[in-house]
Every structure is written in C-alpha cells, then in structure tokens.
Amino acid sequence: MIYYALAYLSGNLLLFNKFLSFILILGLVIIMKRKSFSLIHFIMIVIISLSSFMMFQNDLRSEKEYHSSMINKVFQGKAKFITKPNLEHRILKGKIKIGKKLYTYIYNIHASKNIEIKNVSEFLFQKTCKVHGQFRTLKNDTRPNLIFIIQNIHLSSCYEDTSTFSDTLNKHKAFIYEKMKQWKIAFPEKTIALITGDTSLMKKDELDTIKKIGIAHLLAISGTHIAIIIAIICYILNRIKCPLFLTKLILIIILPIYCMYTNMSPSAVRAIFMSLLIFIFPKYIIKN
C-alpha cells in the first residue's frame, strides 16, 4: 500500500528533516483515520517507520565508521580507472574502483617521476594498474566523501580487463563528453553532471559555489530526472502511434540501463523501482 511506502519514507526523513517527517506522519495518520483504517494498519505504520529509521540510522553510522577508519589509510595494490581521467593543470581526476567500491581520485603528475607518456588520460582509461596512495576527505564539506590521493602509478603493471556492460556505458559517457568539447558546447562537464550525476569532471571551486547557493541537489539524480525521461519517451512513442504495451516494454528496458548509467545512484534506483512497479502493476497501485 502507498501508506506503507510513505511510512517508510517518513522514517528515512526523520534522520535528516525531523519537521518534514513529523508533518508526513501526521498527514498520514489523519488520512487513515478519515478512511476508517483498522488498528492493525496504524500499528504497521508505526513499525515500518521505526524500522526504516533504525535501518537508515545503522547504515549512516556504518558509513561514518568506515570513513573514519579509512581516512589517512595507505593503500597499495590493484585499482581500476573506471572513468576517463580528466587532465587539468597536470592534475588527473576521475573515478577509480578499489575492491568493490568506487572513489573519486586525484593524481598530481608533478609528484611522479614515472609518467613519461603524453596521452596519459587515454592510456589509463579503463585500465587496471598497481597504485600507491592514501585515502582522505575534503575539508569544509557538509557530507564529506572519501577521496583517493594517488602518489604513484606503476604504468608497467597496467592491463585491460574484459570489457563489461558498465565499461561500455562509461566509454559512451566519455565519447559524449569528448564530442561536446569538439563541438565547443558550453560547460560539457555540467551537462554530464546533470545527465548522469557524475561531478568528477567539474572543478572544485564550481562545486563549492553550487553548494553555497544551495542548488547542489540539481546535480544529483532524482525522481525528477526519471519523470522527465519517461515523459520524453512516452511523448515520442505516442506521436508515432506506438501501442501502450510496447511503450511500457521499452521503458522497462531503458530505465534499468539508465540506472546503471548513473552508477546505480540510490535516488535513481528508488525512482526507477517505483516507476517499474507502476508500469507492471498499474491496476493494483491505483486500487490501493
């Protein structure tokens, strides 16, 4: 039921916005009382809200403990350069995969004596190499994320893994970015951030300014992005008289691909999951 989903959401909001969570719960209780719901439903609402709060609180605590344990920790081993490194003033930035986790990395080429190639950005893209570096966190960040400061890359150890579907999507993102730069489109890095939620190509000063004026949420993939994509696809398919069944089928295929395109952003996963539920079980959702 939609009421259970709202109760789950209110438990999550309790961690970040207590006032909004309280308003949501109060509105939920008033609506359920007016519709004469049985006592068991009210009990379920309380249980779901508390369970959601405890679950997200535990996840947040675990994330903070993990960050605390990793700060200033030295790592030496294999890592995969997921995105195409962005070279700016001899500083490389991008996404790197260490183990099963993704991190933003920064590599100052001035600090290395082993870099002898000109097209280092092209060379490292989707390569697995032995790296040596340290985990740190950005100062003055409202929710600091771990970044990996690379001190050395052993270029002789680099090799290319078997290409996966995720690698293909990252190549496509890099291709789009390069084409936008060739066509001299203004702010290609911001366009990539708005489409995929990846801000690794943007300058730190720009990100800090965006956070200060309070519009950082625009660079995060949300339900609005998913709604716009669905609206565009439905409009185009409707104009060419595409059957409703085929339209739903196309959306069911495209939306999970876009979810992977955003590196499985939590907000994108939630929005796409709910959209797919509505497409697959429309009568049940409307009924409840």
Automatic annotation (TrEMBL):
Transmembrane segments: 12-32, 38-56, 213-238, 244-261, 268-286
Cellular compartments annotated: Cell membrane
UniProtKB keywords: Cell membrane, Membrane, Transmembrane, Transmembrane helix
Listed InterPro entries: ComEC_N, Competence_DNA_uptake
Protein's membrane topology: Multi-pass membrane protein
Domain ComEC/Rec2-related protein: 194-281
GO CC terms in record: plasma membrane
Keyword Magnesium: no
Name under which the protein is recorded: ComEC/Rec2-related protein domain-containing protein
Organism: Staphylococcus cohnii
